[in-house]
Amino acid sequence: MKLVRTRHELAEIVTQWHHEGETIGLVPTMGSLHEGHLTLVRALDGKATRRIVTIFVNPIQFNNPDDFQLYPRGLEADEALLAETGVVDVLYAPDETQIYPPGFCTRISVSGPDRMLCGGDRPGHFDGVATVVTKLFMQTRANIAAFGEKDFQQLCIIRRVVTDLDLPITILPVPTVREADHLALSSRNKRLTPAQREQASHLPKALMDCLAALKAGQPVTAALEHCTQTLKDAGFTVHYLDLRSEKSLGTVEKAEASARLFVAASLGDVRLIDNMPVV
What we know:
Distance between the termini: 39 Å
Largest sheet: 6 strands, parallel
Enzyme class: ligase
CATH topology of the largest domain: Rossmann fold
Low-confidence stretches: none
Pathway: Cofactor biosynthesis; (R)-pantothenate biosynthesis; (R)-pantothenate from (R)-pantoate and beta-alanine: step 1/1
InterPro entries: Pantoate_ligase, Pantoate_ligase_C, Rossmann-like_a/b/a_fold
Keywords: ATP-binding, Cytoplasm, Ligase, Nucleotide-binding, Pantothenate biosynthesis
Main location: cytoplasm
Protein backbone atom coordinates (compact mmCIF):
# COMPACT_ATOMS: atom_id res chain seq x y z
CA MET A 1 0.00 0.00 0.00
CA LYS A 2 1.30 3.43 -0.95
CA LEU A 3 0.67 6.58 1.10
CA VAL A 4 -0.02 9.51 -1.23
CA ARG A 5 -0.24 13.10 0.01
CA THR A 6 -0.71 15.20 -3.16
CA ARG A 7 -3.32 15.23 -5.89
CA HIS A 8 -0.58 15.36 -8.54
CA GLU A 9 0.99 12.10 -7.37
CA LEU A 10 -2.45 10.55 -7.16
CA ALA A 11 -3.25 11.68 -10.71
CA GLU A 12 -0.15 9.92 -12.05
CA ILE A 13 -1.17 6.66 -10.36
CA VAL A 14 -4.81 6.65 -11.44
CA THR A 15 -3.94 7.69 -15.00
CA GLN A 16 -1.69 4.65 -15.26
CA TRP A 17 -4.39 2.40 -13.77
CA HIS A 18 -6.98 3.60 -16.25
CA HIS A 19 -4.49 3.13 -19.09
CA GLU A 20 -4.05 -0.48 -17.95
CA GLY A 21 -7.81 -1.05 -17.83
CA GLU A 22 -8.08 -1.26 -14.03
CA THR A 23 -11.35 -0.61 -12.19
CA ILE A 24 -10.88 1.77 -9.27
CA GLY A 25 -12.85 1.41 -6.04
CA LEU A 26 -13.00 4.23 -3.49
CA VAL A 27 -13.77 4.44 0.23
CA PRO A 28 -13.86 8.10 1.37
CA THR A 29 -13.30 8.51 5.13
CA MET A 30 -12.35 11.08 7.74
CA GLY A 31 -9.99 8.63 9.42
CA SER A 32 -10.11 7.17 12.94
CA LEU A 33 -10.85 3.93 11.15
CA HIS A 34 -12.74 0.96 12.58
CA GLU A 35 -14.33 -2.27 11.42
CA GLY A 36 -17.10 -0.36 9.67
CA HIS A 37 -14.57 1.25 7.33
CA LEU A 38 -12.86 -2.09 6.70
CA THR A 39 -16.25 -3.54 5.79
CA LEU A 40 -16.56 -0.84 3.12
CA VAL A 41 -13.14 -1.83 1.78
CA ARG A 42 -14.15 -5.50 1.66
CA ALA A 43 -17.46 -4.64 -0.01
CA LEU A 44 -15.42 -3.77 -3.11
CA ASP A 45 -14.27 -7.40 -3.46
CA GLY A 46 -15.00 -8.52 -7.02
CA LYS A 47 -16.09 -5.01 -8.00
CA ALA A 48 -12.74 -3.22 -8.27
CA THR A 49 -9.24 -4.27 -9.23
CA ARG A 50 -7.64 -1.31 -7.42
CA ARG A 51 -8.71 0.27 -4.14
CA ILE A 52 -8.17 3.77 -2.76
CA VAL A 53 -9.06 4.83 0.77
CA THR A 54 -9.05 8.57 1.43
CA ILE A 55 -8.58 10.22 4.81
CA PHE A 56 -9.47 13.88 5.07
CA VAL A 57 -11.17 15.60 8.00
CA ASN A 58 -13.28 18.03 6.02
CA PRO A 59 -13.47 21.45 7.72
CA ILE A 60 -16.37 22.82 5.69
CA GLN A 61 -18.86 20.19 6.88
CA PHE A 62 -18.46 21.06 10.57
CA ASN A 63 -20.87 23.62 12.02
CA ASN A 64 -19.00 23.72 15.32
CA PRO A 65 -15.26 24.57 15.17
CA ASP A 66 -14.74 22.72 18.47
CA ASP A 67 -16.26 19.57 16.96
CA PHE A 68 -13.78 19.83 14.09
CA GLN A 69 -10.85 20.20 16.48
CA LEU A 70 -12.03 17.31 18.68
CA TYR A 71 -12.67 14.90 15.81
CA PRO A 72 -10.38 11.90 16.48
CA ARG A 73 -7.31 11.63 14.28
CA GLY A 74 -4.54 9.06 14.02
CA LEU A 75 -3.00 8.64 10.57
CA GLU A 76 -0.28 6.18 11.59
CA ALA A 77 -2.75 3.80 13.23
CA ASP A 78 -5.13 4.14 10.27
CA GLU A 79 -2.32 3.44 7.81
CA ALA A 80 -1.30 0.30 9.71
CA LEU A 81 -4.89 -0.95 9.84
CA LEU A 82 -5.36 -0.52 6.11
CA ALA A 83 -2.02 -2.11 5.31
CA GLU A 84 -3.06 -5.20 7.27
CA THR A 85 -6.00 -5.76 4.90
CA GLY A 86 -3.59 -6.49 2.05
CA VAL A 87 -6.10 -5.17 -0.50
CA VAL A 88 -5.77 -1.37 -0.33
CA ASP A 89 -3.47 -0.04 -3.04
CA VAL A 90 -3.39 3.65 -2.11
CA LEU A 91 -4.10 5.61 1.05
CA TYR A 92 -4.71 9.18 -0.08
CA ALA A 93 -4.29 11.57 2.86
CA PRO A 94 -4.14 15.12 1.48
CA ASP A 95 -3.80 18.26 3.53
CA GLU A 96 -6.32 21.07 3.16
CA THR A 97 -4.41 22.80 0.34
CA GLN A 98 -4.82 19.73 -1.88
CA ILE A 99 -8.61 19.86 -1.52
CA TYR A 100 -9.26 23.58 -1.12
CA PRO A 101 -6.57 25.60 -2.93
CA PRO A 102 -6.16 29.31 -2.16
CA GLY A 103 -9.21 31.26 -3.26
CA PHE A 104 -11.51 28.22 -3.25
CA CYS A 105 -15.10 29.50 -3.27
CA THR A 106 -17.27 26.81 -4.90
CA ARG A 107 -19.90 24.75 -3.13
CA ILE A 108 -22.27 21.98 -4.23
CA SER A 109 -25.72 22.36 -2.70
CA VAL A 110 -28.44 19.69 -2.77
CA SER A 111 -31.70 21.51 -2.16
CA GLY A 112 -34.38 19.60 -0.28
CA PRO A 113 -32.71 16.46 1.10
CA ASP A 114 -30.12 18.60 2.91
CA ARG A 115 -32.72 20.54 4.92
CA MET A 116 -34.27 17.69 6.89
CA LEU A 117 -32.99 15.31 9.57
CA CYS A 118 -29.33 16.20 10.25
CA GLY A 119 -29.55 19.11 7.82
CA GLY A 120 -32.23 20.74 9.95
CA ASP A 121 -29.91 21.63 12.82
CA ARG A 122 -26.60 21.47 10.95
CA PRO A 123 -27.04 24.09 8.20
CA GLY A 124 -24.43 23.81 5.48
CA HIS A 125 -23.23 20.40 6.66
CA PHE A 126 -24.34 18.51 3.58
CA ASP A 127 -23.08 21.23 1.24
CA GLY A 128 -19.68 20.51 2.76
CA VAL A 129 -20.14 16.75 2.38
CA ALA A 130 -21.33 17.00 -1.22
CA THR A 131 -18.49 19.33 -2.13
CA VAL A 132 -15.66 17.28 -0.65
CA VAL A 133 -17.00 13.95 -1.92
CA THR A 134 -17.32 15.34 -5.44
CA LYS A 135 -13.74 16.64 -5.20
CA LEU A 136 -12.56 13.18 -4.12
CA PHE A 137 -14.49 11.54 -6.96
CA MET A 138 -12.73 13.84 -9.41
CA GLN A 139 -9.26 13.47 -7.90
CA THR A 140 -9.38 9.68 -7.61
CA ARG A 141 -11.35 9.16 -10.86
CA ALA A 142 -12.89 6.12 -9.20
CA ASN A 143 -15.38 3.88 -10.98
CA ILE A 144 -17.22 2.80 -7.83
CA ALA A 145 -17.41 4.15 -4.27
CA ALA A 146 -18.67 2.41 -1.13
CA PHE A 147 -20.75 4.29 1.46
CA GLY A 148 -22.23 2.94 4.69
CA GLU A 149 -25.96 2.99 5.34
CA LYS A 150 -25.30 4.23 8.88
CA ASP A 151 -25.11 7.72 7.32
CA PHE A 152 -28.21 7.07 5.22
CA GLN A 153 -29.05 10.71 4.55
CA GLN A 154 -25.49 11.25 3.34
CA LEU A 155 -25.83 8.21 1.07
CA CYS A 156 -29.04 9.62 -0.43
CA ILE A 157 -27.45 13.03 -1.00
CA ILE A 158 -24.37 11.56 -2.68
CA ARG A 159 -26.61 9.49 -4.96
CA ARG A 160 -28.50 12.69 -5.83
CA VAL A 161 -25.26 14.53 -6.67
CA VAL A 162 -24.06 11.69 -8.90
CA THR A 163 -27.38 11.57 -10.74
CA ASP A 164 -27.83 15.31 -11.10
CA LEU A 165 -24.26 16.05 -12.23
CA ASP A 166 -23.92 12.93 -14.44
CA LEU A 167 -20.82 11.83 -12.54
CA PRO A 168 -19.36 8.61 -14.03
CA ILE A 169 -19.27 6.62 -10.81
CA THR A 170 -21.37 3.86 -9.21
CA ILE A 171 -22.42 4.23 -5.57
CA LEU A 172 -22.33 1.00 -3.56
CA PRO A 173 -24.43 1.04 -0.34
CA VAL A 174 -23.14 -1.12 2.53
CA PRO A 175 -25.26 -2.15 5.56
CA THR A 176 -24.46 -0.67 8.97
CA VAL A 177 -21.88 -2.52 11.05
CA ARG A 178 -22.77 -2.80 14.73
CA GLU A 179 -21.07 -3.69 17.99
CA ALA A 180 -22.22 -6.60 20.16
CA ASP A 181 -24.84 -4.42 21.88
CA HIS A 182 -26.04 -3.19 18.45
CA LEU A 183 -24.59 0.33 18.72
CA ALA A 184 -23.64 1.45 15.21
CA LEU A 185 -19.88 1.67 14.76
CA SER A 186 -18.74 5.29 14.54
CA SER A 187 -15.50 7.18 15.03
CA ARG A 188 -17.42 9.43 17.42
CA ASN A 189 -17.94 6.49 19.79
CA LYS A 190 -14.32 6.93 20.85
CA ARG A 191 -15.27 10.24 22.46
CA LEU A 192 -17.80 8.63 24.80
CA THR A 193 -16.81 8.17 28.43
CA PRO A 194 -17.19 4.63 29.82
CA ALA A 195 -20.48 5.65 31.46
CA GLN A 196 -21.74 7.26 28.25
CA ARG A 197 -20.75 4.21 26.24
CA GLU A 198 -22.93 2.10 28.50
CA GLN A 199 -25.78 4.60 28.09
CA ALA A 200 -25.31 4.53 24.31
CA SER A 201 -26.50 0.92 24.14
CA HIS A 202 -30.02 2.23 24.88
CA LEU A 203 -30.12 3.95 21.48
CA PRO A 204 -30.32 0.90 19.19
CA LYS A 205 -32.50 -0.95 21.71
CA ALA A 206 -35.01 1.91 21.71
CA LEU A 207 -35.09 1.90 17.91
CA MET A 208 -35.64 -1.85 17.75
CA ASP A 209 -38.43 -1.62 20.34
CA CYS A 210 -40.02 1.22 18.37
CA LEU A 211 -39.92 -0.77 15.14
CA ALA A 212 -41.47 -3.75 16.90
CA ALA A 213 -44.30 -1.52 18.16
CA LEU A 214 -44.87 -0.11 14.68
CA LYS A 215 -44.99 -3.57 13.14
CA ALA A 216 -47.50 -4.61 15.83
CA GLY A 217 -49.80 -1.84 14.66
CA GLN A 218 -49.10 0.98 17.11
CA PRO A 219 -49.79 4.40 15.51
CA VAL A 220 -46.63 6.13 14.27
CA THR A 221 -47.04 9.23 16.43
CA ALA A 222 -47.53 7.21 19.61
CA ALA A 223 -44.59 4.91 18.86
CA LEU A 224 -42.26 7.83 18.14
CA GLU A 225 -43.34 9.72 21.25
CA HIS A 226 -42.75 6.66 23.44
CA CYS A 227 -39.32 6.04 21.89
CA THR A 228 -38.33 9.70 22.31
CA GLN A 229 -39.28 9.61 25.98
CA THR A 230 -37.38 6.34 26.46
CA LEU A 231 -34.23 7.97 25.06
CA LYS A 232 -34.67 11.08 27.21
CA ASP A 233 -35.09 8.87 30.28
CA ALA A 234 -31.81 7.15 29.34
CA GLY A 235 -30.01 10.51 29.39
CA PHE A 236 -30.08 11.46 25.69
CA THR A 237 -30.81 14.83 24.17
CA VAL A 238 -32.97 13.88 21.20
CA HIS A 239 -32.52 16.06 18.10
CA TYR A 240 -34.97 14.14 15.94
CA LEU A 241 -36.70 10.79 15.67
CA ASP A 242 -38.60 10.28 12.42
CA LEU A 243 -40.09 7.56 10.25
CA ARG A 244 -39.21 8.43 6.66
CA SER A 245 -39.14 7.04 3.14
CA GLU A 246 -35.86 5.45 2.05
CA LYS A 247 -36.28 6.93 -1.43
CA SER A 248 -37.37 10.52 -0.80
CA LEU A 249 -36.55 10.95 2.91
CA GLY A 250 -40.05 12.40 3.24
CA THR A 251 -42.09 11.55 6.33
CA VAL A 252 -44.47 8.59 6.13
CA GLU A 253 -47.62 7.90 8.09
CA LYS A 254 -47.32 4.12 8.44
CA ALA A 255 -44.64 1.45 8.80
CA GLU A 256 -44.42 0.57 5.12
CA ALA A 257 -41.73 -1.65 3.60
CA SER A 258 -39.69 1.22 2.15
CA ALA A 259 -39.59 3.20 5.42
CA ARG A 260 -36.73 3.72 7.87
CA LEU A 261 -36.56 4.99 11.40
CA PHE A 262 -34.01 7.82 11.72
CA VAL A 263 -32.57 9.27 14.92
CA ALA A 264 -29.99 11.76 16.10
CA ALA A 265 -29.36 12.01 19.83
CA SER A 266 -26.52 13.31 21.98
CA LEU A 267 -24.80 12.20 25.15
CA GLY A 268 -23.00 15.25 26.46
CA ASP A 269 -21.34 16.84 23.43
CA VAL A 270 -21.19 13.59 21.42
CA ARG A 271 -23.85 13.41 18.73
CA LEU A 272 -24.86 9.90 17.64
CA ILE A 273 -26.96 9.03 14.59
CA ASP A 274 -28.56 5.79 13.53
CA ASN A 275 -31.28 4.41 11.31
CA MET A 276 -33.02 1.07 10.89
CA PRO A 277 -35.27 -0.23 8.11
CA VAL A 278 -38.81 -1.30 8.85
CA VAL A 279 -38.20 -4.58 7.01
